[in-house]
Amino acid sequence: QAQLVESGGGLVQAGGSLRLSCTATGHINDAVGWFRQAPGKEREFVAAISWSGDSTVFADSVKGRFTISGDNAKNTVYLQMNSLKPEDTAVYYCNDGTIVTDTYYGMNYWGKGTLVTVSS
């Protein structure tokens, strides 16, 4: 299975931006997805991209604010988060999987995640 390491989290004011990175090693599937888990809430899907770059999927809550991109040479996927809101505060995780008909199906293993805190 793949090993994925998230980085780039931090504290930012509302309206600010952060870029998260997910670096993958090992046996990687054909897409990478980002998820987040806020305190007291279930983990939720955020965005995904195929390694080919021709498929992306976004949760409605982040459309127009977040973008996702990949660097195949570095085996790294980036989540650019703009116009951040306090409700974006969460631990962000990435995993690998596949995109089928605009739906991301991720594998059920996770890294340690990276904490994003958005202050109001």
**What fraction, in percent, of the residue positions are helical?**
under 10%
Q: Uncertain regions: pLDDT < 50 for 5+ in a row?
A: none
Q: State the end-to-end distance.
A: 39 Å
Strand content: over 45%
Total count of strands: 11
> Can you summarize the main beta sheet?
7 strands, mixed
How confident overall, as mean pLDDT? 95
Given the structure, what is the number of helices? 0
Helix-strand category = mainly beta
Radius of gyration: 13 Å
Pattern of helices and strands: EEEEEEEEEEE
Shape: globular
Oligomer: single chain
Description:
It is a single chain. It contains no helices and eleven strands. The protein has 120 residues and is mainly beta. It starts with a strand and ends with a strand. The strands form two sheets. Strands 2, 4, 5, 6, 9, 10 and 11 form a seven-stranded mixed sheet that branches. Helix content is 0%, strand content 57%.
In terms of topology, how is this protein built?
Layout: E1 2-7, E2 10-13, E3 18-26, E4 31-37, E5 44-50, E6 56-58, E7 66-71, E8 76-81, E9 90-100, E10 103-106, E11 114-119
Parallel strand pairs: 2-11
Antiparallel strand pairs: 1-3, 3-8, 4-5, 4-9, 5-6, 7-8, 9-10, 9-11
List its salient traits.
four-stranded antiparallel β-sheet, seven-stranded mixed β-sheet, mainly beta, 120 residues
Give a brief rundown of this model:
The protein is mainly β. It has no helices and 11 strands.
